[in-house]
């Protein structure tokens, strides 16, 4: 049987190694939680800014991501004002109004049918 001091030092080594591993996991987990909290705060601030903006916000290949809203503004007028710069014509248009989204075929832009927009709409060109 090994002397008590060898058993004791072996057990101490196992405990120390176990604690150092737990510390590493906790540190990386803590870092991940901090990053997630930071990103959540940024997303909340962006949503608040978009909600307070009374114009039309564009997502996609446009020169002007924000277009001022005026009474009677239509989708075609807003896209022209935003200055679409994509290499190909968009295939779909997603309009988000008060948290609800509607997906439209992009043909709506090219066949004469137009959609009225409201202040605060978000238009994504895909």
Question: Your description of this structure?
Answer:
Helix content is 48%, strand content 17%. With 126 residues, the protein is of the alpha+beta class. It folds into two domains: 1-52; 56-125, Outer membrane lipoprotein wza fold like.
What does the secondary structure layout of this molecule look like, with pairings?
Blueprint: H1 4-52, E1 56-59, E2 66-67, H2 75-82, E3 92-97, E4 100-105, H3 107-110, E5 122-125
Parallel strand pairs: 1-5
Antiparallel strand pairs: 1-2, 3-4, 3-5
Please outline what is shown here.
The protein has 126 residues and is α+β, with helices and mostly antiparallel strands. Helices cover 48% and strands 17% of the residues.
Task: List its salient traits.
Outer membrane lipoprotein wza fold like; alpha+beta; 126 residues; 3 helices; five-stranded mixed sheet; 2 domains
The second-level CATH architecture of the largest domain is Roll
Low-confidence stretches: 4-9
Judging from the principal axes of the Cα atoms, what is the shape? elongated
Strand content: 15-25%
Structural class comes to alpha+beta
Task: Count the domains.
Answer: 2
The N- to C-terminal Cα distance equals 74 Å
The level 1 CATH classification of the largest domain is: Alpha Beta
Largest sheet: 5 strands, mixed
Radius of gyration: 28 Å
Q: What sequence of helices (H) and strands (E) makes up the elements? A: HEEHEEHE
CATH superfamily of the largest domain, by name, is Outer membrane lipoprotein wza domain like
């Amino acid at each position: 049987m090994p002397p008590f001091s060898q058993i004791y030092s072996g057990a101490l080594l196992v405990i120390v190694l176990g604690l150092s591993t737990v510390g590493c996991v906790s540190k990386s987990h803590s870092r991940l939680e901090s990053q997630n909290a930071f990103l959540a705060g940024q997303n909340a601030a962006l949503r608040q800014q978009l909600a307070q903006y009374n114009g039309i916000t564009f997502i996609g290949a446009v020169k002007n991501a924000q277009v001022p809203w005026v009474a009677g503004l239509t989708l075609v007028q807003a896209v022209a004002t935003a200055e679409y710069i994509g290499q190909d014509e968009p295939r779909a248009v997603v309009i988000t109004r008060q948290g609800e989204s509607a997906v439209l075929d992009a043909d709506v832009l090219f066949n004469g049918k137009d959609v009225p927009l409201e202040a605060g709409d978000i238009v994504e060109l895909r």
